[in-house]
Amino acid sequence: MLRAGFRYDRGRRERRRWRPTTSRGKITLQILLVCAFAALPGCGSGGTGGEAPNAEPDSVAESAAAGVDESSIRRHLAHLTGEVSVSDGDRDVTISERGSESARRAAAEYMASSFAEISIPARIREFEAGGLRGFNVEATLPGEEGGKHLWVTAHLDSVHNAGANDDASGLTSILLTAEALEELDPEHTVHFVAYDLEEVGLFGSSHHVGSTVSAVREREGEKAIIGALQSDMIAYEEGRFDAVLGTCDQAGPIDDAFSRAAREIGSPIKLREVCLGRSDHEPFWDAGLPAAVLTDGAVYDGYPCYHKPCDTVEELNVSYLRSMIQLTTAATVLLAEA
Ligand SMILES: [Zn+2]
Questions:
Q1: How far away, in angstroms, is 23 Cα from ligand 1 center?
Q2: Is residue 167 within 8 Å of residue 300, measured between CB atoms?
Q3: 38 CA to middle of ligand 1, Å?
Q4: Which residues place a Cβ less than 5 A from the ion ligand 1?
Q5: Taking the alpha carbons of 167, 305, 21, 259 in that order, is the dihedral positive or negative?
Q6: Would the pLDDT of 50 be above 60?
Q7: Domain boundaries, the chain
Q8: Hey, is 146 helix, strand or coil?
Q9: What is the pTM of this model?
């Protein structure tokens, strides 16, 4: 995510009436707090093995979330942060940072091939912005004819560090959410996108919204767009499984989907709703489209290794990240079938 004071801080807080928590967020939080600690009636069946009395049959969202496993999370994180090399045709490449053009290109190819492995076609869209060459990765899971469009996104680049939390955690989430969704037949089309050049000014997402998303809107109308969910820094926790959904009252159906998803899977994540920008969901807002950002309880700058060389996998809590991906998967299922 962007450092504070860059671009979207300028003059935006006044216009957006920056508020720490919305009233709806408080209600959401109360519901989640109740549901987080016990398998109570109305709180779903307790997710991963909870002993709920009168447990309801598994929902589609619950089944999809249950398939998210820690070994896949660790595998993607290891490849995206240079712990393990990736195969680039006939040679091995180590992605030890994702700031240089060659490393960003390698990371884009890793993402595209990972989508292809789970039978979701992906393409790398090159673009030029700010004197730099960028590589967005777009993978699409088509819905039924006449369905709407949802974007599930994260950012590809880092500030020339390993960028484990920022944002290999988000990249891992969109890969595993895609894998869970691929086994379903969603009514709506789900686009999984890894945006390049986020850290230097949201270039990849701005380019994408101005081209691909605008084309969908022109072709199918505004009502055909459900919105965009960005995951940025979702793997650091210090003693509490809490997280933040940045909505600024511009999330469309996304915040309600997260509340429902948390209940259905009995998520241990305590989610609060705030107004938060500084990531790739902002260009959607600028275009007047619904969007939100999911981030961990440290809320960007509270992460001790934010934009530092120590942003490595060792700093992350993989169990917490799994819960965050499960929640994202369940919310995506609900949005894609609604
Ligand atoms: Zn960042």
A1: 29
A2: no
A3: 35
A4: 1, 166
A5: positive
A6: no
A7: 65-337
A8: coil
A9: 0.85
